[in-house]
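Milestone 3.1: sequence recovery, worked example.
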């Protein structure tokens, strides 16, 4: 077996290392300056406390820790009502954990993962391809660079379309409902979808009842909203608004 096959997959962590080392460095810098300006010890403490929080959050999300990010993906998988046949799309695949889990669960289907793989994250197309090889699904999974706001596929191309905590990160479109509608555009008639995002942030998506009604005017026959944030496996430390406290899921059928 090749070295790439033997290498364990690396799916990354939603808490990037920059969230730890930037406040950590700032805290230490202010702590040093506090020898000359004692009042700065307050700022030092705040930055060091923030770094400590993100260290803990990273542990909670990590597979080697409490694996909360894996359980959040698992909740999406649990709510899929799909027969597993046909073509599927994962929008914003990152390092492809969801794409690969789907490929393993549905061996009769073919999968495409797309992402812009921006420099702000430790994700890449090459990492996706390595992970697919390591998990033995590379023959049924392909990856392409693309924006979620302008998917390079015709209308009604896929039997299943999923996305996990991506829409709010799409930088080239301010209106996140537009990103949602673009994702639904490529779902086949009678195809299914499952999207998880910060749907409880009203500044992005508005009132949920209004969003659901708007989706029906787009030709969606069935849609249900599930509050991921209430899941029992999400610890209180992660239920802050800037972490997992506004996550919800839209699942349904076109």
């Amino acid at each position: 077996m090749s070295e790439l096959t033997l290498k364990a997959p690396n799916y990354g962590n939603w808490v990037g290392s920059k969230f730890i080392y930037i406040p950590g460095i700032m805290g230490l810098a202010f702590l040093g300056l506090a020898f000359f300006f004692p009042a700065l010890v307050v700022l030092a403490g705040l930055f060091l406390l923030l770094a400590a929080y993100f260290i803990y959050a990273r542990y909670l999300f990590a597979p080697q820790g409490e694996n909360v990010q894996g359980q959040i993906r698992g909740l999406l998988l649990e709510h899929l009502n799909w027969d597993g046949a046909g073509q599927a799309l994962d929008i914003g695949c990152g390092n492809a954990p969801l794409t690969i889990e789907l490929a393993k669960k549905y061996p009769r289907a073919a999968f495409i993962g797309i992402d812009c793989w921006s420099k702000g994250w430790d994700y890449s197309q090459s990492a996706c391809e390595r992970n697919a090889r390591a998990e033995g699904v590379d023959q049924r999974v392909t990856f392409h660079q693309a924006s979620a706001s302008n998917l390079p596929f015709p209308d009604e191309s896929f039997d299943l379309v999923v996305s996990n905590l991506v829409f709010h990160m799409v930088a080239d479109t301010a209106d996140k409902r537009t990103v949602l509608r673009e994702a639904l555009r490529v779902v086949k008639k009678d195809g299914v979808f499952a999207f998880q995002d910060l749907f409880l942030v009203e500044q992005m998506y508005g009132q949920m009842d209004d969003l659901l009604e708007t989706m029906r005017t787009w030709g969606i026959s069935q849609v249900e909203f599930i509050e991921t944030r209430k899941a029992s496996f999400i610890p209180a430390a992660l239920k802050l608004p800037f972490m997992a406290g506004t996550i919800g899921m839209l699942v349904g059928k076109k």
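The domain at 68-253 is CATH 3.40.50.150 (Rossmann fold). The chain has two domains: 1-66, 68-253.
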